# Entry
Amino acid sequence: MTRRWQTTSFLLSCSALLFLIGPLAGCKPDTKEPEFLFRASLLVGEDHTWYQAVAFFAEILEERSDGRLKLQVYPSEQLAKEIEAIRLIRAGVIDMTLTGSTLSNWKEVMAFCELPFLLKDSTEMKVLINGPVGKRMEEAMLQIGLRPLGYFQRGERHLTSNRPIKHPDDLDGLIIRVPNVPTFVTAWSTLGAKPTPMSFSEVFTSLQQGTIEAQENPFAMIKNAGFAEVQQYINLTSHVVSWTYPVIGEKQFQKLPDDLKKILLDASRDMQTYEHQLFIENEKSVQDELKAKGMEFIEVDKEAFIQKCEPGIYESLSPPMKEVYNQIKDELK
# Structure
Protein backbone atom coordinates (compact mmCIF):
# COMPACT_ATOMS: atom_id res chain seq x y z
CA MET A 1 0.00 0.00 0.00
CA THR A 2 2.80 2.35 0.87
CA ARG A 3 4.67 1.58 -2.33
CA ARG A 4 1.51 2.20 -4.42
CA TRP A 5 1.02 5.58 -2.68
CA GLN A 6 4.63 6.51 -3.31
CA THR A 7 4.33 5.58 -6.98
CA THR A 8 1.12 7.59 -7.35
CA SER A 9 2.68 10.57 -5.58
CA PHE A 10 5.73 10.42 -7.86
CA LEU A 11 3.56 10.33 -10.98
CA LEU A 12 1.50 13.29 -9.76
CA SER A 13 4.64 15.27 -9.05
CA CYS A 14 5.98 14.53 -12.53
CA SER A 15 2.68 15.54 -14.09
CA ALA A 16 2.67 18.82 -12.17
CA LEU A 17 6.26 19.54 -13.24
CA LEU A 18 5.48 18.79 -16.87
CA PHE A 19 2.42 21.06 -16.65
CA LEU A 20 4.62 23.89 -15.44
CA ILE A 21 7.54 23.51 -17.81
CA GLY A 22 5.59 22.32 -20.83
CA PRO A 23 4.49 25.74 -22.06
CA LEU A 24 7.98 27.13 -21.48
CA ALA A 25 9.64 24.33 -23.40
CA GLY A 26 7.23 24.51 -26.30
CA CYS A 27 6.95 28.31 -26.76
CA LYS A 28 9.38 31.08 -27.56
CA PRO A 29 8.67 34.60 -26.28
CA ASP A 30 7.54 37.08 -28.96
CA THR A 31 9.93 39.77 -27.72
CA LYS A 32 13.17 39.84 -25.82
CA GLU A 33 14.35 42.32 -23.27
CA PRO A 34 16.59 44.98 -24.88
CA GLU A 35 20.13 45.45 -23.65
CA PHE A 36 19.49 49.20 -23.60
CA LEU A 37 16.10 50.81 -23.03
CA PHE A 38 15.98 54.56 -23.70
CA ARG A 39 13.14 57.02 -23.13
CA ALA A 40 12.49 60.23 -25.07
CA SER A 41 10.39 63.14 -23.79
CA LEU A 42 8.85 65.39 -26.48
CA LEU A 43 6.81 68.57 -26.09
CA VAL A 44 4.78 67.96 -29.28
CA GLY A 45 1.79 65.67 -29.81
CA GLU A 46 1.63 62.51 -31.90
CA ASP A 47 0.45 64.20 -35.10
CA HIS A 48 3.48 66.54 -35.25
CA THR A 49 6.27 65.78 -37.72
CA TRP A 50 8.85 65.79 -34.91
CA TYR A 51 7.05 63.01 -33.07
CA GLN A 52 6.64 61.05 -36.30
CA ALA A 53 10.37 61.38 -37.04
CA VAL A 54 11.42 60.24 -33.55
CA ALA A 55 8.92 57.35 -33.72
CA PHE A 56 10.51 56.35 -37.05
CA PHE A 57 13.92 56.58 -35.36
CA ALA A 58 12.71 54.26 -32.58
CA GLU A 59 11.42 51.76 -35.13
CA ILE A 60 14.62 51.54 -37.17
CA LEU A 61 16.80 51.49 -34.04
CA GLU A 62 15.05 48.39 -32.73
CA GLU A 63 15.02 46.73 -36.15
CA ARG A 64 18.68 47.40 -36.99
CA SER A 65 19.93 46.42 -33.53
CA ASP A 66 17.89 43.19 -33.60
CA GLY A 67 16.04 44.33 -30.49
CA ARG A 68 19.17 45.10 -28.47
CA LEU A 69 18.35 48.83 -28.40
CA LYS A 70 14.83 50.12 -27.79
CA LEU A 71 13.51 53.68 -27.57
CA GLN A 72 10.19 54.57 -25.94
CA VAL A 73 8.76 57.92 -27.11
CA TYR A 74 6.52 60.02 -24.86
CA PRO A 75 4.73 62.99 -26.55
CA SER A 76 3.04 66.13 -25.15
CA GLU A 77 5.43 66.58 -22.20
CA GLN A 78 4.09 63.42 -20.53
CA LEU A 79 7.42 62.75 -18.87
CA ALA A 80 8.65 66.30 -18.29
CA LYS A 81 8.57 69.86 -19.55
CA GLU A 82 11.52 70.88 -21.72
CA ILE A 83 13.86 72.33 -19.10
CA GLU A 84 13.09 69.52 -16.66
CA ALA A 85 13.66 66.97 -19.43
CA ILE A 86 17.14 68.38 -19.98
CA ARG A 87 17.88 68.12 -16.26
CA LEU A 88 16.58 64.55 -16.16
CA ILE A 89 18.76 63.55 -19.12
CA ARG A 90 21.82 65.03 -17.43
CA ALA A 91 20.90 63.09 -14.29
CA GLY A 92 20.50 59.85 -16.28
CA VAL A 93 16.79 59.47 -15.48
CA ILE A 94 15.60 59.77 -19.10
CA ASP A 95 17.64 59.76 -22.27
CA MET A 96 16.41 61.95 -25.15
CA THR A 97 14.48 65.12 -25.96
CA LEU A 98 14.20 67.89 -28.55
CA THR A 99 15.64 71.26 -27.60
CA GLY A 100 17.25 74.42 -28.92
CA SER A 101 17.40 77.95 -27.57
CA THR A 102 16.23 76.79 -24.13
CA LEU A 103 19.80 75.55 -23.72
CA SER A 104 20.89 79.21 -23.59
CA ASN A 105 20.04 78.91 -19.89
CA TRP A 106 23.22 76.79 -19.73
CA LYS A 107 25.28 78.07 -22.68
CA GLU A 108 24.63 81.55 -24.06
CA VAL A 109 25.71 80.67 -27.59
CA MET A 110 22.66 78.39 -27.93
CA ALA A 111 20.46 81.50 -28.22
CA PHE A 112 21.58 81.80 -31.84
CA CYS A 113 19.49 78.86 -32.99
CA GLU A 114 16.39 80.99 -32.30
CA LEU A 115 17.59 84.58 -32.08
CA PRO A 116 14.75 86.92 -33.14
CA PHE A 117 15.26 88.76 -36.43
CA LEU A 118 18.66 87.16 -37.07
CA LEU A 119 17.91 85.01 -40.14
CA LYS A 120 15.75 85.70 -43.18
CA ASP A 121 15.06 82.18 -44.45
CA SER A 122 15.99 78.49 -44.32
CA THR A 123 18.97 79.05 -46.66
CA GLU A 124 20.60 81.35 -44.11
CA MET A 125 19.64 78.87 -41.39
CA LYS A 126 21.58 76.07 -43.10
CA VAL A 127 24.61 78.35 -43.55
CA LEU A 128 24.61 79.00 -39.81
CA ILE A 129 24.09 75.35 -38.80
CA ASN A 130 26.90 74.10 -41.04
CA GLY A 131 29.30 76.95 -40.33
CA PRO A 132 31.70 77.74 -37.46
CA VAL A 133 28.97 79.01 -35.13
CA GLY A 134 26.92 75.86 -35.70
CA LYS A 135 29.94 73.73 -34.78
CA ARG A 136 30.47 75.85 -31.69
CA MET A 137 26.86 75.20 -30.66
CA GLU A 138 27.36 71.44 -31.04
CA GLU A 139 30.44 71.64 -28.81
CA ALA A 140 28.43 73.64 -26.24
CA MET A 141 25.78 70.92 -26.12
CA LEU A 142 28.42 68.25 -25.52
CA GLN A 143 29.79 70.36 -22.67
CA ILE A 144 26.31 70.38 -21.12
CA GLY A 145 26.18 66.58 -21.48
CA LEU A 146 23.95 66.36 -24.55
CA ARG A 147 24.90 64.87 -27.91
CA PRO A 148 23.04 66.37 -30.91
CA LEU A 149 21.69 63.84 -33.42
CA GLY A 150 21.19 66.18 -36.37
CA TYR A 151 18.56 68.91 -36.48
CA PHE A 152 14.84 69.25 -37.20
CA GLN A 153 13.25 72.22 -38.94
CA ARG A 154 10.83 74.38 -36.96
CA GLY A 155 9.62 76.73 -39.66
CA GLU A 156 9.24 80.46 -39.17
CA ARG A 157 7.67 81.59 -35.90
CA HIS A 158 4.61 83.85 -36.09
CA LEU A 159 2.51 85.69 -33.53
CA THR A 160 -1.08 84.57 -32.88
CA SER A 161 -3.60 86.85 -31.18
CA ASN A 162 -7.25 87.86 -30.99
CA ARG A 163 -6.65 91.26 -32.51
CA PRO A 164 -4.68 91.94 -35.71
CA ILE A 165 -1.08 93.06 -35.24
CA LYS A 166 0.40 94.83 -38.26
CA HIS A 167 2.92 97.13 -36.60
CA PRO A 168 4.88 97.06 -33.31
CA ASP A 169 2.67 99.91 -32.06
CA ASP A 170 -0.30 97.50 -32.22
CA LEU A 171 1.24 95.36 -29.48
CA ASP A 172 0.63 97.99 -26.77
CA GLY A 173 1.13 95.85 -23.66
CA LEU A 174 -0.18 92.60 -25.20
CA ILE A 175 0.55 89.69 -22.82
CA ILE A 176 2.46 87.14 -24.91
CA ARG A 177 3.57 83.69 -23.86
CA VAL A 178 7.20 83.02 -24.77
CA PRO A 179 9.48 80.04 -24.09
CA ASN A 180 11.87 80.35 -21.17
CA VAL A 181 14.56 81.99 -23.34
CA PRO A 182 16.06 85.36 -22.31
CA THR A 183 16.33 86.76 -25.86
CA PHE A 184 12.63 86.12 -26.47
CA VAL A 185 11.76 88.14 -23.38
CA THR A 186 14.09 90.92 -24.56
CA ALA A 187 12.66 90.96 -28.08
CA TRP A 188 8.99 91.27 -27.13
CA SER A 189 9.70 93.72 -24.31
CA THR A 190 11.60 95.90 -26.77
CA LEU A 191 8.65 95.74 -29.16
CA GLY A 192 6.27 96.98 -26.47
CA ALA A 193 4.55 93.72 -25.42
CA LYS A 194 4.52 91.99 -22.04
CA PRO A 195 6.26 88.62 -22.52
CA THR A 196 5.45 85.84 -20.06
CA PRO A 197 7.69 82.71 -20.01
CA MET A 198 5.57 79.57 -19.75
CA SER A 199 5.79 75.84 -20.51
CA PHE A 200 4.25 74.90 -23.84
CA SER A 201 1.79 72.44 -22.29
CA GLU A 202 0.22 75.28 -20.26
CA VAL A 203 -0.36 77.67 -23.18
CA PHE A 204 -3.74 76.48 -24.48
CA THR A 205 -5.43 76.67 -21.08
CA SER A 206 -3.84 80.04 -20.34
CA LEU A 207 -5.13 81.46 -23.63
CA GLN A 208 -8.55 79.98 -22.94
CA GLN A 209 -8.68 81.53 -19.47
CA GLY A 210 -7.24 84.88 -20.57
CA THR A 211 -4.12 84.63 -18.42
CA ILE A 212 -2.21 85.40 -21.60
CA GLU A 213 -3.49 87.06 -24.78
CA ALA A 214 -1.13 85.80 -27.46
CA GLN A 215 1.65 83.34 -28.23
CA GLU A 216 4.22 82.78 -30.97
CA ASN A 217 5.14 79.54 -32.75
CA PRO A 218 5.55 77.98 -36.21
CA PHE A 219 2.46 76.94 -38.18
CA ALA A 220 2.82 73.25 -37.29
CA MET A 221 2.96 73.96 -33.55
CA ILE A 222 -0.03 76.30 -33.79
CA LYS A 223 -2.04 73.57 -35.48
CA ASN A 224 -0.71 70.75 -33.27
CA ALA A 225 -1.69 72.56 -30.07
CA GLY A 226 -5.18 73.47 -31.29
CA PHE A 227 -4.61 77.21 -30.92
CA ALA A 228 -7.17 77.87 -33.69
CA GLU A 229 -9.81 77.22 -31.03
CA VAL A 230 -8.63 80.12 -28.86
CA GLN A 231 -6.85 82.51 -31.29
CA GLN A 232 -8.26 84.29 -34.34
CA TYR A 233 -5.27 85.82 -36.10
CA ILE A 234 -1.86 84.63 -37.28
CA ASN A 235 0.27 87.74 -37.68
CA LEU A 236 3.01 86.86 -40.17
CA THR A 237 5.92 88.32 -38.23
CA SER A 238 8.43 85.62 -39.28
CA HIS A 239 10.43 86.92 -36.33
CA VAL A 240 12.42 83.71 -35.92
CA VAL A 241 13.75 81.23 -38.48
CA SER A 242 14.88 78.35 -36.34
CA TRP A 243 15.46 74.67 -35.77
CA THR A 244 15.57 72.19 -32.91
CA TYR A 245 18.06 69.48 -32.00
CA PRO A 246 17.16 65.89 -31.17
CA VAL A 247 19.63 65.16 -28.37
CA ILE A 248 20.68 62.14 -26.35
CA GLY A 249 22.54 62.18 -23.05
CA GLU A 250 26.26 61.89 -23.71
CA LYS A 251 26.70 59.52 -20.74
CA GLN A 252 23.93 57.30 -22.10
CA PHE A 253 25.52 57.32 -25.56
CA GLN A 254 28.95 56.41 -24.22
CA LYS A 255 27.53 53.37 -22.41
CA LEU A 256 26.69 51.77 -25.76
CA PRO A 257 29.15 49.33 -27.35
CA ASP A 258 30.75 50.53 -30.57
CA ASP A 259 28.44 48.55 -32.86
CA LEU A 260 25.32 50.06 -31.26
CA LYS A 261 26.84 53.55 -31.35
CA LYS A 262 27.26 53.19 -35.10
CA ILE A 263 23.70 51.90 -35.53
CA LEU A 264 22.33 54.83 -33.51
CA LEU A 265 24.32 57.48 -35.39
CA ASP A 266 23.43 56.00 -38.79
CA ALA A 267 19.76 55.84 -37.77
CA SER A 268 19.88 59.45 -36.59
CA ARG A 269 20.96 60.60 -40.06
CA ASP A 270 18.02 58.73 -41.56
CA MET A 271 15.75 60.29 -38.94
CA GLN A 272 16.86 63.79 -39.96
CA THR A 273 16.26 63.05 -43.66
CA TYR A 274 12.83 61.64 -42.85
CA GLU A 275 11.90 64.70 -40.74
CA HIS A 276 12.97 67.13 -43.46
CA GLN A 277 10.74 65.33 -45.97
CA LEU A 278 7.80 65.40 -43.56
CA PHE A 279 8.36 69.10 -42.86
CA ILE A 280 8.28 70.09 -46.53
CA GLU A 281 5.14 68.03 -47.19
CA ASN A 282 3.44 69.34 -44.05
CA GLU A 283 4.19 73.07 -44.17
CA LYS A 284 1.75 74.09 -46.92
CA SER A 285 -1.06 71.75 -45.86
CA VAL A 286 -0.88 73.04 -42.28
CA GLN A 287 -1.46 76.62 -43.43
CA ASP A 288 -4.49 75.52 -45.40
CA GLU A 289 -5.84 73.65 -42.36
CA LEU A 290 -5.45 76.69 -40.11
CA LYS A 291 -7.29 78.88 -42.62
CA ALA A 292 -10.03 76.26 -42.86
CA LYS A 293 -10.38 76.42 -39.06
CA GLY A 294 -11.09 80.16 -39.36
CA MET A 295 -7.72 81.71 -38.60
CA GLU A 296 -7.00 84.90 -40.54
CA PHE A 297 -3.47 85.55 -41.81
CA ILE A 298 -2.28 89.15 -41.31
CA GLU A 299 0.59 90.71 -43.28
CA VAL A 300 2.79 92.86 -41.04
CA ASP A 301 5.31 95.66 -41.49
CA LYS A 302 8.35 93.42 -41.02
CA GLU A 303 10.84 96.25 -41.48
CA ALA A 304 9.23 98.18 -38.60
CA PHE A 305 9.57 95.12 -36.36
CA ILE A 306 13.22 94.64 -37.33
CA GLN A 307 14.18 98.30 -36.86
CA LYS A 308 12.58 98.47 -33.41
CA CYS A 309 13.79 95.09 -32.13
CA GLU A 310 17.24 94.47 -33.60
CA PRO A 311 19.17 97.10 -31.56
CA GLY A 312 17.64 95.86 -28.31
CA ILE A 313 18.54 92.25 -29.10
CA TYR A 314 22.14 93.20 -29.93
CA GLU A 315 22.61 95.26 -26.76
CA SER A 316 21.21 92.43 -24.62
CA LEU A 317 24.08 90.16 -25.69
CA SER A 318 27.29 89.86 -23.70
CA PRO A 319 30.48 91.17 -25.38
CA PRO A 320 31.57 87.65 -26.49
CA MET A 321 28.10 86.98 -27.96
CA LYS A 322 28.14 90.32 -29.77
CA GLU A 323 31.28 89.04 -31.51
CA VAL A 324 29.41 85.86 -32.47
CA TYR A 325 26.48 87.95 -33.76
CA ASN A 326 28.83 90.00 -35.96
CA GLN A 327 30.53 86.81 -37.16
CA ILE A 328 27.16 85.37 -38.24
CA LYS A 329 26.27 88.56 -40.09
CA ASP A 330 29.61 88.44 -41.91
CA GLU A 331 29.07 84.77 -42.83
CA LEU A 332 25.63 85.51 -44.24
CA LYS A 333 26.99 88.25 -46.48
About this structure: Residues 1-30 have pLDDT under 50 and may be disordered. Strands lie at 36-41, 69-74, 96-99, 146-148, 152-161, 175-178, 194-197, 214-217, 233-249, 296-298.
